[in-house]
Every structure is written in C-alpha cells, then in structure tokens.
Amino acid sequence: MQNVCKRSKSAIFRPEGDSSMIPGGQDPLQQNFAETLPAEMSVRIFSELDFRSLCRASLTCRQWNDIIEGSDHLWRSHCLTVLAVCRREVNGDRLDGCSWKVALVRNYRKGCVKRRWLKGRYSNIRSADNIPPNSMCPLDVETWGEILEAELER
C-alpha cells in the first residue's frame, strides 16, 4: 500500500495490512523522538542546533524544554563562542555562580554587537543617526576601547 503525504507529496511505503501503528495508537512518523530515544541521544540531537534554534526548540513542548534546560552541556558549547568575544563578561558571570545558560543569555546580544563592531561593519558610520536599529547594546569602557583600537588600525 502506498500513502502519499499531501504536504510534501513524498511517498511512504508500507506493506499491505501493516498499519505501522505503535502501542498507544501513534503513527511512528508523528512520534516525538525524545519520547523514544535515551535522553543522551536527544541531547546529542539538540547539540546540533544553533543558539536561536535551541531556544525555539525549548518552547516546543515540556519534554524538549526539560531536556534542553537540564543540559548544561548544550548551553556551555554556545557560551564558549560568545566567550571568545566577551571573555570578561562571561567569566565574571561564571565566577558569580551563573549557569552556562544564564551567562550565554546575558552576553549573547552583546557578543553579536561587539563582533560586528570589531569586524568593521559600522566603520563607515559618521553620525549616531546612521547607526542601524538593533545594532547597539550597553558595552563597558574596555570593550569600547577594543573597538576604538580596531577602528584606528583600519
């Protein structure tokens, strides 16, 4: 028997008489992978997501949220990318006892803004009126010093 999915128009082949239903009556194609896989495998799958996708996935259902929120490893790997740009801020948060997730959330936007400034994305801005929206956030004096040094080297 051939079933055609209306959304993707792809064929799903099932032997005649096989309803491919699992106990509980749920179609395996509709089943949540986190319900059947060990938590470690789910964490491995979630570790392939970028920061924004990981945050969105944590909003999908309670089970995904529990797995994502409970795995400091997932947040640590993303936090290390922000750490490369915002070392003082992340290290300060970690010394204050913040989790990797909290340190990441507190410094992610700052890291993105700082990275753009250091790469010279805003080098040709001549006045405050020309700064694009959402391209600013509070930065400390030392960070502005780094940005100024980078601009002077250009």
Automatic annotation (TrEMBL):
One BP annotation, GO: protein ubiquitination
Keywords: Ubl conjugation pathway
Pathway this chain belongs to: Protein modification; protein ubiquitination
Any one annotated GO CC term: cytoplasm
Residue stretches making up the F-box domain: 31-78
CDD domains noted in UniProt: F-box_FBXO48 (cd22113)
UniProt-listed SUPFAM superfamilies: F-box domain
Superkingdom of the organism of origin: Eukaryota
Classification via InterPro entries: F-box-like_dom_sf, F-box_dom
Pfam families referenced in this protein's UniProt entry, alphabetically: F-box-like
Protein name, per record: F-box only protein 48
Species of the source: Anabarilius grahami
